[in-house]
Specification:
It is built from 13 helices and 2 strands, in the order αααααααααααααββ. The protein is mainly alpha-helical and about 290 residues long. It has a domain of about 70 residues. Helix 9 packs parallel to helix 13 and helix 12 packs across helix 13.
């Protein structure tokens, strides 16, 4: 019900003329799709996020992404912290279920750690992106882009204010490294982040954290190797790039394909591997 309410409110707000980049309301179905995609952090879009929505629309999308990426209970608990409200027993029991814990002990402390992780990680990501983009854009616009993309990357949402997503930065080390790090940190989960933070003191990791880290690393490496070798000779994706750009593109696409929805290479131009055959899509027709 919480997610339905958030999506409904987001749909209404995105359907307002003030949320549109053209000052004319977008269709209700487009508003509903965008609100749902943002809240469920899918990265799917039916409109160009940067051009179809105003600053108000971007703010609504960003709030939906933050709520969806962190969860209703996490956001409501953090809000309670900010206003100094006491966490009731009922809320603690719901938090126990939401965080997949076996007891209510330490849940409030866990929620506080989550809040700190969010502020620090998204803040550091936004700072790095700001100093990068302020060389190209005005300080206000650079900060605008930095905050939006940092939150989207950490929440694994995949929304971008650029019409080509992040394809223009496929060969840029700073953008690739920053976004990849944010995606991975947001994707492995807060419980794993907490254990990593406390590792220096405890020197132990739970089975859950070990599996999350090892499986994530294995999947990223496999994805990188497969994409690199299949696409290195594809002139429509990695073929025309130098070695470092091919490596950046392969790693980025391997990381983002697992959870995030960003892209630095044209997904439509990727080769399609079918037992013994490699298909690719040129501009006009399908060739075998």
């Amino acid at each position: 019900m919480g997610f339905l309410i958030v999506i409904a409110i987001g749909t209404i707000l995105l359907n307002l003329p003030i949320a549109s980049g053209t000052e004319k309301s977008i269709s209700l179905i487009d508003a509903l799709f965008t609100a749902t995609a943002a809240t469920c952090v899918t990265g799917l879009i039916v409109l160009d996020t940067g051009g179809a929505f105003s600053a108000f629309g971007h703010l609504v999308i960003l709030i939906l992404i933050q709520i969806g990426g962190l969860g209703i209970m996490t956001m409501s608990t953090m809000f309670a912290f900010l206003v100094g409200k006491r966490i009731s027993l009922r809320q603690r029991l719901i938090m126990e279920e939401s965080f997949n814990q076996f007891s209510i002990g330490g849940l409030v402390r866990l929620a506080k750690y989550i809040f700190i992780f969010i502020v620090v990680i998204e803040g550091v990501g936004a700072t790095i992106l700001f100093f990068y983009w302020q060389r190209i854009y005005s300080p206000i616009q650079a900060l605008y882009l930095a905050v939006f993309h940092s939150i989207c990357a950490f929440c694994n949402a995949g929304f971008s204010l650029f019409s080509d997503n992040l394809m223009r930065y496929k060969g840029d080390l700073i953008i690739n490294l920053t976004v990849i790090t944010l995606i991975i940190l947001g994707g492995i989960g807060f419980l794993v982040l907490l254990e990593l933070y406390q590792y220096g003191k405890n020197r132990t990791l739970s089975l859950h954290s070990k599996l999350a880290l090892k499986v994530s690393l294995i999947l990223i490496l496999i994805g990188f190797i497969v994409i690199f070798f299949i696409e290195s000779n594809n002139p429509l994706t990695l073929g025309s790039l130098n070695l470092s750009e091919k490596i950046y593109g392969s790693i980025f696409q391997s990381v983002t394909a697992r959870t995030a929805g960003f892209n630095t290479i044209d997904i439509f131009r990727l080769k399609k591997v079918i037992p013994g055959l490699i298909l690719y899509f040129p501009k006009s027709r399908l060739k075998l």
